[in-house]
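The instructor's notes for this session suggest beginning with a concrete chain rather than abstract definitions. Hand out the sequence below and ask the class to guess, before any prediction is shown, which regions might be ordered.
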Amino acid sequence: MFSFLVFDDFKVFGSKSLGKKLLSSEGTPFKESKVTLISVRHGRVVSAMDGDDWINIKGIGWQFGGPDILRPDKDKELVFGLLDEKSAKREKEVSAHLQAISGEYPKVLGYTKLRDIKMPKEIKFVEDITFNNNIRVEPCVLYTKVKSPFRMADMAFLSDNGKREVVDFYSAYFDCEQKDFMEHFALRLGKSIGFLHTHGIINDSLYWDNITMCAEIVDYEWLTVPGMRLPNGEDASNIMIRERKEKEIIYAIEAILRTADILFIPRDFYRILDMLLTGYGQYNKNFVRNSEMLIRLSKREKIIC
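After discussion, reveal the predicted structure:
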């Protein structure tokens, strides 16, 4: 257990009574009613312990200490604090696809439609909230099992002591010395990306707030999966494949280097690149060999364009 974590009763939109209803609903995986706010960057997620694993819970209100629900005027289909049914359903479908090819990826356990729960009167209006395009949100709460509750981006918000605890814990998880942690992390993340790429799965939003400290890729709404359209209806499975794979690898390098700096871990760009591509190449060696950009990166060219 991390000493700096603070646990509280499970509340949904600030309602403890609604939290209790969700805890007792069919299929809810919780054994404990206490959760902790972990991923500050995400703003929609709290986490509950489940043995040695964690369950991320998404769609339970905007978690920044202000309003529980906020609909900005700019976006057609966005409400801060709510997870719409279309997004929840797609995450579950993508997760099922991933589980069919490997059990190594975070598993979406399911989701609960708030409309199916008897809502407290004071927040029953949530059932009928619409996006700015007048389409009903149909808010849901999504449950995903992960090995780490921390996203890489969360490290920026921890105290120096908290960062040391995290590095100690996950260095032991990777069975490595603290100074080598980010290299082992890069190897693991490279394997994960390479495996997905061999199955035609591309992540165009592999940012550091979508990767856990166990090198897990989370949040599946916008993963490109063969035969499955994106939330905007587009089929991106045959669009600029090489370029998007290369860009995802660059995003991964950026995330690792940024996190290493925040954790005060010495790092070398080319060593991280080598470890990431070594992991990636275990599943997709031909892509590394044939990518001009990756070859030029490995040759330490200073201008690649």
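Then share the key points. Residues 152-298 form a domain with the Transferase(Phosphotransferase); domain 1 fold (CATH 1.10.510). The radius of gyration is 20 Å.
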